[in-house]
Amino acid sequence: MPRLADHEERRRSITGAARRVIARGGLDAATFQSVAAEAGVSVRSVQYYFGTKREFLLATHRAVVANSGARLHQALAALGPDAGPRDIVRAIMLGLLPLDESSREDAVILGIFHAATLTGPDLDATDTAETPNYIVDAVAAQLRQLRGPDAEEPTIRADAELVLLTVAGLAQGMLTNADMATRATHLVDHLLDRVMNA
After folding, report:
1. For the segment 74-119, what is each residue's pLDDT rounded down to a tens digit?
2. Rg (Cα) of the chain, in Å, rounded?
3. Could you give the residue ranges of the DSSP H alpha helices within the chain?
4. Residue 121 CA to chain centroid, in angstroms?
């Protein structure tokens, strides 16, 4: 068991190093050599644990998503058992925005990965589609609960997709627009006033 734990810790160390390299220089900067140097391990170690550049990029993406997911889970747990659909959707949206240094780094890296899926060759859109789909499903579930059994499913899905697209756009805008960053919570509440009361 300790050997397995050592392997997992080494993998986390390498993906952590890859995150730092990517945040500084983009995916092109993330080579076996640069990640190995950042992690303080040999190039052979990186190759041993991940095999190809694509594999360690995907593992790094999963690590960033897991970090965001843990932050989101904490935000939802803090709401307590009596939270309503609006509170839950609001927590999801705020949990995905770059409101502190850790979430800002995650947003930068996820933006870099998104751009890479458009240009290739190491990644494509199917590699990163699971998380957006999960968010749409989670928001749609809350909209169903709020609107009741007579609500039209296509409208619920469309509204959930709008919430996701708003969060994605707002997150990227906040990285470069200080004014937008200061108004992020207001913008989230403004959208919720429209979507949750529809």
Report:
1. 888 899 888 999 999 999 999 999 999 889 989 999 888 888 888 7
2. 19
3. 2-25, 32-39, 43-50, 53-79, 85-95, 101-119, 130-147, 153-176, 178-182, 184-195
4. 21
* Dist CA 166 CA 74 (whole Å): 22
Contact in structure between 38 and 30 (CB atoms under 8 Å) = no
Task: Say if CB 42 and CB 36 are below 8 A apart.
Answer: yes
Using CB atoms within 10 Å of the CB of residue 109, give its burial: 0 to 12 exposed, 13 to 18 middle, 19+ buried. buried
Token duo for residue 88: 């839950």
CA nearest neighbour of 92 among 125, 131, 145: 131
